[in-house]
Specification:
The protein is α/β, with parallel strands linked by helices. It has nine helices and ten strands. Strand 4 and strand 5 form a beta hairpin.
Length: 273
């Protein structure tokens, strides 16, 4: 059974139809790379998954249970939306760290806000235990992204690559079922891009379920299990990375796109038997 299943997602902005009936499944522990030209609907799809944009039509299932039905969307209260968003972590293009907080404080802020809303956390002992565990978790996440010595620094004291790695750690702090990335390296130079992709490859190797909107074809070829190629609001190709980047790719549009993004060279993907 798929961890995530999307059925018939449609979304229009005014007269412009951006998503034209998207069907999608993601298995637990799978890395899905979503690629396509600007304006193909990639980011809109990702924002729909994270309840930042409401689809006009369609359903979403998580672990076999209905998580969203566009027909009932108007009935959802804001607190219900917040709870459903917690299934997803989202790493944006531009970091979006709080400049007034240290790195560790950025990681701990959302869990602490949730703690305050939990009636059980009125108990002093439970609150103290939670905060102790949260501190340990933050330290572990900073080690995971290679920033164990920067917990007390402020965002302005970090490079762009370091800030994006903090953003990844922050997204992981709430233990989401699925981690989503929206062009996480688009604002970085090549050296800093390599730092972030190294962390993402590590997460993929650890079988973190991820949906990655990216123009980094080498990452998509090497680290992604599957490729979803979107073209003009529809799914043009959905299949294994080896099929997308191999010589036998059946989609002419996908071959042309990869060639244009990769300067005419096809990145090496997963080895096939």
């Amino acid at each position: 059974m798929a961890l995530l299943e999307i059925r018939d997602f449609h979304k229009s902005f005014g007269k412009t139809e951006v998503l034209k009936g998207i069907d999608l499944t993601v298995g637990k522990g799978e890395t899905l790379a979503v690629i396509g030209s600007s304006g193909s609907g990639k980011t809109t799809l990702l924002r729909c998954l994270n309840f930042l944009v409401t689809p006009d039509r369609g359903r979403m299932y998580l672990d076999g249970k209905l998580l969203f039905d566009a027909g009932d969307a108007k009935k959802l209260k804001e607190d219900e939306l917040r709870e459903r968003r917690l299934h997803f972590g989202l790493v944006f293009q531009n970091f979006n760290l709080f400049p007034q907080y240290t790195v560790k404080e950025n990681l701990c802020l959302a869990p602490k806000l949730r703690m305050r809303e939990d009636p059980e956390m009125k108990d002093r002992a439970k609150r103290a235990a939670f905060l102790s565990e949260l501190d340990e978790k933050a330290e572990g996440l900073l080690r995971k992204v290679g920033l164990s010595d920067r917990g007390g620094a402020y965002p302005c004291e970090l490079s762009g690559g370091q800030q994006q790695r903090v953003a990844i750690a922050r997204a992981l702090a709430l233990s989401p079922d699925i981690l989503c990335f929206d062009e996480p390296t688009s604002a970085l130079d090549p050296e800093l891009t390599a730092e972030v992709l190294k962390v993402m490859r590590s997460l993929a190797a650890d079988r973190m379920t991820m949906i990655v909107v990216t123009h980094e074809m080498s990452f998509a070829a090497e680290a992604a299990d599957r490729i979803l190629f979107m073209d003009r609001g529809a799914v043009e190709f959905d299949g294994p990375s080896s099929a997308a980047f191999g010589p036998g790719c059946t989609s002419e549009r996908l071959r042309a796109f990869i060639g244009s993004v990769s300067g005419g060279e096809r990145p090496a993907g997963h080895e096939t038997a």
